[in-house]
Structure to design on (348 residues):
């Protein structure tokens, strides 16, 4: 039996407080008008981001920023907003902004900040707010789009295969495909190249294995990540499609950011029985473990039966299948104490 390494509450608290100084600022935004009328601008790079709606009925939205003084809130119409900092539990009064007006987040707290609770409308049903799906967004993040990607349209492409012999991709090319490679991203080696004169619009395991011969089983392995690379005439960069051969994969509905442990829901697909599973913190200390999980799901209700510490921070869930590990990284934004503070803030 593997032994869980437990940190004392005092040590975990000290580690959390020391890491807090280097973490990003996490801020809840409430708005009396459509959140689509509010944008966030990085004054250093000039990048402007919208605020996606992660809770449609609660009236709250999460921002994750690196610098309060270098991040501006930009209003495209008259707006009334209120901000709450999770780290120091400071809120602002309602801030009125005219169309085109800009304010740094730092100024919002310097000018309108108050540690006292604010009186206002009941903007959220707390129960509904905390049970809705939660996703964090970073204003410094970018959506990576492969250049020239529209020149190839895949037909219902899969990103995960339980076995190599399930590999199959079909596509429609709008331009001539001059070369196709298959690269193993785990080993950083080229596995396969389509033979000269290849003009088909489908690739599957049988085709690749016929070319690889006896090496197919060695080169297409469960546990590795791969990338198809399409070199299209007239394009400098390859159009790529990544996929995994994996004993398990996490469902796309699984967010990797949660307001609290109470919101945690992680589900996955697999055809094998898990031999072992555990959750470890950022320092690699195991905070929970289990053998022979019956369901392909973990949530707060399940974890609280055997887990003792529920602190905010970054964690990793690891599923083990016959020594093959499938990780899922996630972040908990608020501790139980901070959740109680947020509840009070939302119903003021």
């Amino acid at each position: 039996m593997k032994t869980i390494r437990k940190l004392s509450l005092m040590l975990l608290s000290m580690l959390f407080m020391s890491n807090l100084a280097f973490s990003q600022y996490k801020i809840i935004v409430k708005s009396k008008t459509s959140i689509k009328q509010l944008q966030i601008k990085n004054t250093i790079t000039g990048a402007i981001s919208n605020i996606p709606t992660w809770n449609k009925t609660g009236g709250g939205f999460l921002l994750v920023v690196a610098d309060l003084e270098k991040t501006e809130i930009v209003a495209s119409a008259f707006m009334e907003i209120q901000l709450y900092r999770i780290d120091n539990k400071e809120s602002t009064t309602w801030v009125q902004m005219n169309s085109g007006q800009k304010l740094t987040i730092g100024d919002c707290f310097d000018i309108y900040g108050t540690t006292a609770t604010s009186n206002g409308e009941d903007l959220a049903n707390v129960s509904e707010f905390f049970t809705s799906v939660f996703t964090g967004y970073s204003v410094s993040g970018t959506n990576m789009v492969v250049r020239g990607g529209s020149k190839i349209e895949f037909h219902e492409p899969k990103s995960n295969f339980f076995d190599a012999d399930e590999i199959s991709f079909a596509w429609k090319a709008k331009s001539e495909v001059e070369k196709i490679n298959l690269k193993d991203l785990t080993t950083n080696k080229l596995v396969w190249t389509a033979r000269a004169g290849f003009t088909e619009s489908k690739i599957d395991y049988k085709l690749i294995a016929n070319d690889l011969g006896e090496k197919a089983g060695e080169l297409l392995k469960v546990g590795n990540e791969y990338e198809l690379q399409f070199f299209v005439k007239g394009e400098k960069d390859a159009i790529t499609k990544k996929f995994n051969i994996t004993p398990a994969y996490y469902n796309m509905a699984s967010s990797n950011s949660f307001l609290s442990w109470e919101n945690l829901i992680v589900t996955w697909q697999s055809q094998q029985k898990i031999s072992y599973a555990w959750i470890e913190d950022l320092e690699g200390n195991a905070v929970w473990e289990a053998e022979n999980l019956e369901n392909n799901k973990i949530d707060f209700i399940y974890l609280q039966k055997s887990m003792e510490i529920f602190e905010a921070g970054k964690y990793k869930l690891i599923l083990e299948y016959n020594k093959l590990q499938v990780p899922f990284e996630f972040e908990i934004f608020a501790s139980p104490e901070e959740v109680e503070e947020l509840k009070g803030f939302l119903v003021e």
